[in-house]
Fold each of these.
Amino acid sequence: ARSECVFEETNAQTDEATAAQMIALLGLCGSFPGEAEASLEASAAAAFPAEVRLHAFIKVLAVWGYYRQSHTLRACAQVALNQILDYCLVDLGSPARAELLRLILGHVSSELGPALLVERAMLYLRCLQRVALHPAARRWASAEHPQVSFFRSEIPLLLLSFSKHFSTRLPVLALLLPVVNRICWLCVDHWSTAEAGGQRPSPTSVFGALQVEALFGGVYLRSLGLAVPPLLAAPDAPSEASELLELLLESLCDLLQPELVRALWLSFDGDWRRPPLVEQVVARVVELLGAASGTERPLPPHLAQLSSAVLARVVAAFVGTDSVVQQGRSRQTEANGCDLDSVRLQWRQREAVCDLMAKIEENPKKARAAFDKSGLSDITPLPSLGGLAEGEDGSEEWARKLIWMLRCQNHVIPYAAVGEFFGQPKDDSEKAIAAFVDTFDWGAADIEQALRGFLEVFLLPKEAQQIDRVLKTF
């Protein structure tokens, strides 16, 4: 692995014992030194930098792909991959080990796509499972260090990509969903613990909440939407749809532990700025039960039982006779400053946001007038202008508040309608776009390319000249 010539080629005649030794040596190259040789860390980092260890990791992947018929060698390759991953996770505080894990995840991301073989996708998911279930994962996922980004950025984004490309492949989902559950538990555990202690949410804990929102919406809600219609559409629904729904419901039952349900309800359903995740899950399950009961082909008994179990999990999180549980729940509610009256107020505010977005979708040209009449301006925070130099004039207050709404309420935004509002040749539209741009921290980005990307998100350039006209303004 070091010289890029050792074991460069393999062939079918290679003895299994020799190939197993080759895999073991590659695993050693990627994971040396172990805990017993901690004193050699500095010299090993110089002799085996992250790029060389990544090369060993890729070599093991190549051997795994070559020996398709040998379960023994594939098992040896999986052990070697786990060995390299364990080397990273034992001490993610080490820059060299963190860099190696970042390179490995980057390599997985570069191969992930529609053309990726299912067996290769399952191998990568086993690697992600190793990372997520490692004993040290909880410590690194709750640390206020850059390493936390692995569990709240890189890994969740990979999981979303797997769900996008393999959303109906049962073997892949069977490995994907437990990893999704683990990442959700790690994120919720961190931010709910911090809030229960009376601490203000940190940027990383809020980022973790965003990842939970993305995983729920991009994996569970999306997959449920794909599994339910085929099951109800035809009398002879394919067995794959039934098996997929069974897998999703079983995984939801595993995910919805009482503490997690309460944390989700307080952090999402009880906050008008976020989507009501628990409500959406319950609505999907109730819709499934209701739609099936009105058809000639009722839901299979085991699916009806699993659906009821999901609903029971949610209800049981809020119904308990144990006084200790009740006291703990009261302390958590007090720490979050949340009671039923304030939650009802949050719900009314969320309804006002949904009404506003519906009016914008109905008449995009009058987005500002709809915002002024909604009454949301009084409760919308005034965001800072991260992209402006000191002393530079900012945008008008209404525009900044409307843009905050469009940046944070992404779960209800009618993007095409907002794009039509941005594309109007009117002062209000120009001020709104300017306020949006003021919030950007450009860093070293290509401003024109970034602005084009921003406009394309809102489907603005239905006519090519619109985007060029907007760019001329800046």
Amino acid sequence: MKSIKMVPISDYVSLKLEVDRLTDLVEDLTGKLAKVNVQQGASSPVEKGIVISSGGKGRYLKVSDIVMIKAESNYSTIHIVSGESLFTSKTVKYWTEKCNAPFLFRVHKSYLINGRMIESFEPSKGKIFLKGGHNANYTEQGRKMLMGLK
């Protein structure tokens, strides 16, 4: 039988704070690098990315790789183009503000979708079908927002 190693809560809290600090630092540096590339006239500036803490690991992800983010109570699941799903302890509202991308749309209180990944609509059921077999519900307000794209 393996014994469980007890870790003081203070160690856990300090580690969590350090992970959060490093996550913010990576995002800040990515933004600064993108600005420098734009100022220097680089033809392909660094694409905006986020760091996702999921399963005890931090993972860098380009915002454009997000297919959709689905609310799960006070948590969320991020579905990405590779087919993976990442469960996070952040809300959809948090990711909407953090990603701040013009191609991401909050079409329902439970869904943030990538407008570039839309394949079709089913208006009678209020559903949007996305690449990778994903689908999301949308509200009337969400439909109007998406119709403004066309």
